[in-house]
Amino acid sequence: MVKIEAKAVVIFEKGKLPEVLKEHTFTVDTDAIGEYQVVGESRGSPVNVSDLAQTGHAYKSQPTWTTELGGGRLAVLGNEGAFEIIAVGKGVTDFEVGDIVIPNRPSFGTWRSHIVETCEPGKHLPLRCVSSHKNPGLTAEQASTIRVNPSTAYDLVNDYIKDWDPNGNDWIIQSGGNSQVGKYLVQFAKLRNIKTISIIRHGKPDHDEIVKELKDLGATHVITDVEAASDKFKNEIVPSWVGSGAIRLATDCVGGDTFRTLSEYLTGDYMTDPRRPYLVTYGFVGSFDVNISGIDILSKGIIIAPYWLTSKTRLKREEAIHTLEEVSRLIIEGKIKHVPFVTHKYDAKVGWLNTYLMAIRDISKGKQVVTYK
Amino acid sequence: MLARQTARRTSSQLHQVRNMITAQAVVYTQHGEPKDVLTTHKYEIDDDNLDKNSIVIRTLGSPVNPSDINQIQGVYPSKPEKTTELGTAEPAAVCGNEGLFEVVKVGAGVSKFKAGDWCIPTKVNFGTWRTHALCSDEQMIKVPNPADCKARGREPLTVNQGATISVNPLTAYLMLTHYVKLEPGKDWFIQNGGNSAVGRYASQIGALLGINSISVVRDRPNFEEFARKLSTENGATHVITEEQNNSREFGPEVKKWTKATGGEIKLALNCVGGKSSAGVARKLAPNGLMLTYGGMSMQPVTLPTSLHIFKNITSAGFWVTQLLKSDLDLKLRTLSQIIEWYETRQLKDSPSHENHFSPDADLAACYIHAVDSSKQGKQLVVYQ
């Protein structure tokens, strides 16, 4: 049919951003694909902080190095994204043209316009179909960002505290309330009748709109980091909200003083209450320390646990797939709202790499997704 | 003389004249600094009319623990109930959590104790700073007295060993055995506060169980000799300074040690906090656990986040009281192991400074003095 000039954002070695990022082109010939190969075209891939971290030496998750795309040894960046199948080999039975698929492994290399993958029936599939003509499911837009943020939020709610009170007496407090994870988390919590306190940064120009958005999504209360750090909120306001309930989970993606502040809000009594409160950290990329009062660890019985999606995907495959299926179901059923993101549409005049560089530039302003068409 | 005999006869229809035991206890009705709030309360124990399951015990020794002091100050989460049971005008609590006792007399229904037996409290908050106690047999656990040890062909338990067995040795043993499976001969644990009482128990018990250890201690002028002593006398496989603990350059050296045994550092014990906790956490293998214990007044615990997340390090508190509160069987099993090691002289107890109490002295004054001396080391009040 056609020879496509495919484009990818790659690195040839680890190094400094953004110089280390290069545009690489390779040819995909849909007429010449193998019996078990499929060709997919990008329908959107986001820029995550962890994608960028893979270009440096400190991050423990490696990008996938390959020589199959020509040009020597290189790694395509990007961990999540959605592709539409545009061609399938004769022997492929798991996918059809028009299917929306997402990667089935971390470090897939999603920052590219096209993918060519071998999908032999009966073998482990590198892709996962999330929507087909016969079985419509997620939209491409939903699928492009389902892997990281919604799954993380779902796991934070479900992996640590297993005996949530169904009657609305249990609470979660979270930093990063305005992040994608934060916005999904309040929704998953609300589905289980868990109340939430979302902490957002003080002094946002659009403060009131953010609060309204978060409350519309299901946040019980939204407070600023300045309020959270104040004695008035610690000793009067939040206790008056929680009453005889319990703040059993705190999730933190900020670190520093926030980590400690969150620990101060947790409810627990190591001596008399067998319910151990959890302080779960996630989404850290930098290398810094967090502090917590030893007195709180002991008197409240706090357990500090990390959450790292990449590790879970590798080590607890079945559980990670279960999460993905549950999250997909809830989104398809409309119980969880897709959280909007900023889209950067590829323009041939701008170039593939430059489109990503624009998305990277805006990363602090919320989730950025690059679409091919 | 005549009057007493008459009195005896008059009351003989009810009972023989009562030979009550005059007991003393150190009590507080208000929280505060020990010297301000502790008083001696004297009361009588009627040992002639014991309930079926009651026992009368006399104290052989009870220590001053930091948590005892924190309880008196009102800053410790576990608090004894204040009651008027002992005949105090206001509700009062008896101080002390650990102690060794000797059974003086038992009620008619008591089969697990006889006079002369040694025992320790089943639970915390018993109130061990007292000369005698009247309690139910359930409230005490039997430990071997010197005659029992001798009958078993073993060395006798000392008063210090019995009086200080419930907290520090149990803490060390349970932290090493209850959470993470450490493979003898291969695996390692690392601990800061390596020269603390729990630290020395942990390295010794590690050695007895075949588990390798790295004890972190503060640097000191005679470090080499000090380290050698911790190794030869307290079983530490390696002793390093806080400076080495915090230095990244020292990491490869530690890796060399673990590589040589084919094991991993799966457990870190932290009682110091701050940089030191980050240092020991950094040496943990993936999926390792850091337990923080005994730090009611310590620095914040520091965790390096990237490592915490990438290595899936979990951090939790350890509190022996909480673990054993609902698991008497675990307490009995653990005690029996520690006692066996004491009797066979394989485990050395952490020494205490002895304060001797004579019955004509003021008991509260004796403990206040011991509290004041606590900075010089653990204090034990020994009764004659």
From TrEMBL, chain A:
GO terms for molecular function: oxidoreductase activity. Its main location: mitochondrion. One of its GO terms (biological process) is fatty acid metabolic process. It is found in: Mitochondrion. GO terms for cellular component: mitochondrion. Belongs to the zinc-containing alcohol dehydrogenase family. Quinone oxidoreductase subfamily. This is Piso0_004093 protein. It comes from Pichia sorbitophila (strain ATCC MYA-4447 / BCRC 22081 / CBS 7064 / NBRC 10061 / NRRL Y-12695).
UniProtKB/TrEMBL annotation, chain B:
CDD domains: ETR. One of its GO terms (cellular component) is mitochondrion. It holds the Pfam family ADH_zinc_N. It comes from the Eukaryota. It catalyses: a 2,3-saturated acyl-[ACP] + NADP(+) = a (2E)-enoyl-[ACP] + NADPH + H(+). SMART domains: PKS_ER. It is found in: Mitochondrion. Its EC number is 1.3.1.104. Its main location: mitochondrion. Residues 36-381 form the Enoyl reductase (ER) domain. Coiled coil: none annotated. SUPFAM superfamilies: GroES-like (SSF50129), NAD(P)-binding Rossmann-fold domains (SSF51735). Belongs to the zinc-containing alcohol dehydrogenase family. Quinone oxidoreductase subfamily. This is enoyl-[acyl-carrier-protein] reductase.
